[in-house]
What does this fold into?
Amino acid sequence: MSGSNALIPSLVSLIVGIVVGYILRYFYGRFKLQSIETKAIKIKEDSEKQAQAILAKAEEDAKAKVLEAREAIFQEKNELEKTIRERKNEISSIEKRLASREESIDRWSKTVEEKDRVLLEKERYLKLREEKVIERESRIDKELERIASLTKEEARKKLEEKVKADVDERISAYFNDKVSSLEEKIKELEIESDKKSREILVSAMQRIASDVSKDVNITNITLPDDEMKGRIIGREGRNIRTLENLLGVDIIIDDTPEIVTVSGFDPIRRVIAQITLENLIKDGRIHPARIEEVYEKAKSEVEQKIVEEGTKTFYELGMPMNRISTELIKAVGSLYFRPSYGQNILLHSKEVARLSSIIAGEIGANVEVAKRAGLFHDIGKAVESDVGNKHIEEGIKLLKKVGETSDVITAVAWHHEASGFPSSILDEKEYSETVEAVIVRVADKISGARPGVRYDAGAWGDYVTRVTELEKEAKRMDKIEHAYALQAGREIRLFVKTTVPENELEQIAKDMKKQIIQNTKIRYPGRIKITVVKEKRVVEHTD
It folds into this structure.
């Protein structure tokens, strides 16, 4: 029992020792394993670093070798290009030398050819001279043989014939040379005259500076307020009817704020209407009696303005007033209110007068005749609104009436060339075209052709022709005192004499209708309204 008891502690110690040893072995193994793993990791990291270093060095070496190779290639390329350029320069130099030699050879060849040609020409010429000399010697020999057999009289006649033929030949050659020389001189003179005429026209145009003035067939009048429109119309339209009947224009009152429009083809009527309305608006009193009073004042004012403009025109142009009649002054002044194709006729006429006088002075023509004809060339438009050439006839009638000279009348008659010559009242042989007429025609074209002066005359001409013919047709009737075309020719208003019975008014309207239809000059679209007005007025004054 004691032995077994002693064995137990030994066994326990053994077991404990075994367990402790195992544990120690386990931990030692674990420690050793960790140490090995650490070393392995370190070895791996070192090997990776060495590999990266080797790789980096290899890359650097490779890059260096590539750079060296590129540099070597670049140097070789430069050397090769330099060699090529040198070769090209050498080739270009050789080509230039060859081209120069070819040119020299060509020039030498041409020189040789030219010399050969000259030599051949000389040879042919000498041969021809030799043949002519031989032929002449032969003729002389024959002539001597023939003369030897002639009498003295026959020899003299032969000599005269020969001398005459020789003289005729020389005279013919002389005149041919002179004719050729004269033709050249004529051409030179034509060129010089054309140049001189251009210089004269340019000089004249530079010395004339006038404004372009355009006119239209409507005038706008500004009102202080829209209430004034009602006062102009008046109760039941009395005022506007009185205005239109007196003025012979259309007074258009529409939705345009503070504006009344005066429309009419006659510019003088339009100006009178404008002054009348403006004075009525300023005065504020608008009724039929006041309208008539203001109208008479406006009419007198315009007539005075016409005389002033006519007188001023003659003074501006330096024309002596002792040779100017009152009728002519009024005719010239009325051109201030008349347009032609949109151009103010008075301004145009003054410009033509100045241009004509300058051109006449430059070429030595009659300056006074050219100036007067230039001013009066459109004087017929003061009494004739037709856009055709009828104004020339009216102008000549007026100039004859006031005693104008035949030279001025001739220049006026020809200012539209032969197509406009008024052969119905003038003899073309007696009033033949003169230098002054040509000057006026040229000046008229220069003034009318400036940019911005004229517009297309077609529609305006048709309009003026229609309304003027309409009024003329009405005035041909004995019972009509005066007539006005309104609404752009779509209405004709007839004012009959006070002695006409009222039962005849309807017949007058029918007669007017027939006359309009039969007149081919009145071209009208649609219909024309015919209004017949009879107005009877009795005026009595207290003592």
Q: What stands out?
A: The first strand starts at residue 218 and ends at 222. Residues 2-148 form the longest helix (147 residues).
